[in-house]
Amino acid sequence: MNFKKYGYFWLTNLMSIMKARNLKTLSLILFCSFLMTGCGFHSAMVDNINNTTTNVDLSKKNFKVVEKVSGFSTATYVLGFGGIANKSLIENAKAKMLENAGLIGGSRAIINMTTESHVTLVFPIFYQKTITVSAYIVEFTE
Question: Staple partner for 127: which of 14, 39, 45, 77, CB 3.0–4.6 Å?
Answer without folding.
Answer: 77
